[in-house]
Specification:
Number of strands: 11
CATH class: Alpha Beta
Shape: globular
Cofactor: Fe(2+)
GO molecular function: dioxygenase activity
Bound molecules: 2-oxoadipic acid, nickel (II) ion
Keywords: Dioxygenase, Iron, Oxidoreductase
Number of helices: 20
Strand order of the largest sheet: 2-3-4-1-5
Organism: Pseudomonas trivialis
EC number: 1.13.11.93
Helix content: 40-55%
Strand content: 5-15%
Largest sheet: 5 strands, mixed
CATH architecture: Roll
């Protein structure tokens, strides 16, 4: 068996991402509508902005754009999270970043499973935002015990999925037939269930504590709750959504609209109310929604600090959680505060605010071997022998994620938790540490500089 060629984890991820998207489109038709709208908008943007088309061609993002998406799931126990880590590892996905959403009233902490190397991201940039419920935040001891018992009874992975994970770990990979079966079996974990594992009354009790708690505890598994395609112009899609029968949330999360996009902008439409059979009665539950994202350049620690400072200043001045009523003022405040953030790639690079990829230009390659050619990176850039392109942000933003969660939980019940952020506990549950995303961006940037040096020797 081990003599058969292994399928690359990147190809398994690519296949899984496609299978997941097909499953979700079958189950949630509005996701299909959103995919079409995003594809149409992206085509239009690429046709009307040749400069952007060229930039995305050079970085490879244009080639990966149509298959680019992220999903999100929520689990209930350390064991579930640890097994998910092993499942995602089979597909070359590792836990990157730690996000604590408790300060925003959402009783979870999270990581994003994704590929980490630019060449792997190029094959498939699929990411899964994965949250672990913090059961210790349930105040009522009986309810907490009930939730723990319900979670302890369930098994969210099929026996074949577990066997194939083990096989991949022991043999260093899966062959083609095993990879196909793995994709099918792994998909089962993320499927929607029309039946709950609890009574209607138990569901209500959990839900009264927090809707998220009911969403995790009352079901057989961590259904995928959204899949998010990447658009090149989120304002255009947001404006076009109502025409397609989709009502977006009032405010786009993340930075304001800019010429040079930074980090991540996101918007979503509310979760659908879906019929559920409880063990003793019929009712409904809403969990699944649609979201779109627009990705911009990754920021350095200095750039991120400036982003956080400006975001906080705008929110402080708004004096309330952004909502339908204050959306206009929020947009205005954001635009105003973010004037302090340079909106030109050259300036962002010079001020050390963002990460870039460096490319040897035709001019640079033509000058190879010439005695008087420039030597330093700065001189090469000035001479046009090297050009920069923004390094795309591959991760998430905690304040935005909290906004996405809230819009789907109904903005009504805002919980307040005094609990501290607990990265160590999360990593203990996960079974490893989370990777620092900033280090990944710095490494990709450095590899591109090294490649330029090589090419222009
Ligand atoms: C995850 C919400 C966060 C994002 O894109 O920031 C998220 C969830 O609702 O489970 O997906
Ligand atoms: Ni999302």
């Amino acid at each position: 068996m081990s003599s058969t060629a292994h399928v690359s984890p990147d190809d398994i991820r690519k296949g899984f991402s496609r299978a997941m998207s097909d499953m979700y489109r079958d189950e949630v038709p509005l996701y299909g509508a959103l995919l079409e709208l995003v594809a149409e908008t992206n085509r239009h943007v690429l046709d009307s902005d040749p400069g952007l088309a060229q930039q995305l061609q050079r970085t490879g993002e244009r080639q990966r754009l149509d298959m680019e998406r992220h999903g999100a799931i929520r689990v209930g126990t350390a064991a579930e999270l640890a097994t998910l880590r092993r499942l995602f590892a089979v597909m070359g996905m590792q836990p990157v970043g730690y996000y604590d959403l408790t300060p925003a009233g959402v009783p979870v902490h999270s990581t994003a499973f994704r590929a980490v190397h630019e060449s792997a991201l190029q094959t498939s940039p699929f990411r899964v935002f994965t949250s672990l419920l913090r059961l210790e935040l349930i105040e009522n001891p009986e309810l907490r015990a009930f939730a723990e018992t319900a979670l302890a009874k369930r098994s969210i992975f099929t026996p074949r999925a577990l066997a194939l994970i083990e096989h991949a770990e022991q043999h260093g990979g899966l062959d083609a037939a095993q990879a196909d079966e793995f994709i099918r079996q792994a998909l089962e974990t993320f499927r929607w269930h029309h039946t709950a594992t609890v009574t209607g009354a138990q569901y209500r009790q959990l839900s009264d504590q927090h809707r998220l708690i009911a969403d995790v505890v009352a079901f057989k598994g961590p259904h995928i709750n959204h899949l998010t395609p990447r658009t090149l112009d989120i304002d255009q899609v947001q404006a076009a959504m109502p025409g397609k029968g989709i009502t977006p949330k009032a405010v786009i999360e993340g930075p304001p609209r800019r010429r040079c996009p930074i980090l991540l902008r996101q918007t979503s439409f509310k979760a659908l109310d879906e019929p559920i059979a409880f063990t003793d009665a019929h009712g409904s539950h809403s969990a699944r929604f649609g979201e779109i994202e627009q990705r911009g350049v990754a920021l350095t620690p200095k750039g991120r600090a400036l982003y956080d400072q400006l975001l906080n200043a705008a929110r402080d001045e708004l004096g309330a959680f952004p909502n339908e009523a204050n959306a206009g003022r929020y947009t205005q405040l954001m635009a105003q505060h973010f004037q302090a953030f340079p909106d030109e790639h050259g300036q962002m690079r010079e001020q050390g605010l963002a990460y870039f990829r460096y490319f040897a230009t035709g001019q640079g390659l033509a000058a190879r071997g010439q005695a008087d050619r420039p030597r330093t990176l700065e001189a090469l850039l000035r001479a046009g022998h090297v050009a920069i392109e923004p390094l795309v942000y591959e991760d998430f933003l905690p304040v935005s994620a909290a906004g996405i969660f809230q819009s789907n939980l109904g903005d009504t019940a805002q919980s307040h938790y005094a609990a501290n952020s607990n990265r160590a506990e999360f990593e203990q549950a996960l079974g490893c540490t989370t990777i620092d995303e900033l280090q990944l961006y710095a490494q990709t940037q450095q590899r591109s500089i090294d490649a330029c040096t090589q090419a222009l020797l």
